[in-house]
Amino acid sequence: MMKKLMVLALLGFLFFVPRLVFGQEDTTVNIVDDIQFDLKSKVVNGDTLQVDLFVISYEKDPRDFRLNVFASTLVDGEGKSHMLHSVKMGRVLVLLSQRQNYLNYLLKQDVPVGITVKFSPLSAAMKKAKEMKLVFESLEEEGKFIEARIRF
Questions:
Q1: Which of 6, 98, 126, 127 would suit a FRET pair with 75, their CA atoms being 20 to 30 Å apart?
Q2: What pTM was estimated for this model as a whole?
């Protein structure tokens, strides 16, 4: 009798454990407006913070991606926003000093594109920042801008 109970318990365990493991969801995936944002790296080099990301469009092929350069910021630990120095997406580079409002890029479906954002000069609070905010135009409504928050 004890042997049968052990076998039943083992079979029950083997049957239910895989369902629990495969049923888990990745909570680190950051998808906003059908675009996935993946953090590649965050590096402080002297007085410059460089954040490298990948963006992937899932729904529309091709998709116009319009990043609002002036609204995209680094958020420090105190909640203060700091403007970027430059942003590069693919081969398109926009410097804040150029006073260009938007970075426009054509995303192809399921093709990752690198984004490099630099912040300079850095303060002590900026070096400890835990989040960056990217503001871009909505796919559904032209002229409406939404934000993606990337946590470090």
A1: 98
A2: 0.77
